[in-house]
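Notebook entry, structure prediction.
Reason for the run: the old model in the group folder had no record of what sequence produced it. Starting over properly, with the input documented here first.
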Amino acid sequence: MLTLTLHLYDDSANPLRQYACRNTNQPGIVYTHVASRQDVINEIGRIRRLGLLVELWLHLHGSPGVVRTQSVLLQSFAFDASTVYLLRNVCFNAMPALATVYWLCSDLGQGPAGDAFLRAAGPAMLSRGGVLYPRLR
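New structure, fully documented this time:
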């Protein structure tokens, strides 16, 4: 079965990030623009039909314990410790044991709220085991 790496990204003012996320054609690596929580869930489910998701990179916006998607100048709430469980079923179906998740969201893992998020995200997304990496700064 084909193994895949999925990069989910939202709008960003950073031109380097925009270029990197929109100009790639490497086999087995998929970049998808997302604008909402439901887009994140739908895309992980879609990728499952193409192959086995071994790496998931979330290039989104964050603050301690909260993930947001951004569309131009508007931000929308995506996940926190009480809603990250919504990824459980889709991640269980898409990701094998020992998968890796990278949360590249500014300050997501900071403080008590960040700790609570990461403690909720690990079991929700990696119920078969794996590694979760937060970007702390």
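Summary: The chain is about 30% helix and 35% strand.
The old model has been moved to the deprecated folder.
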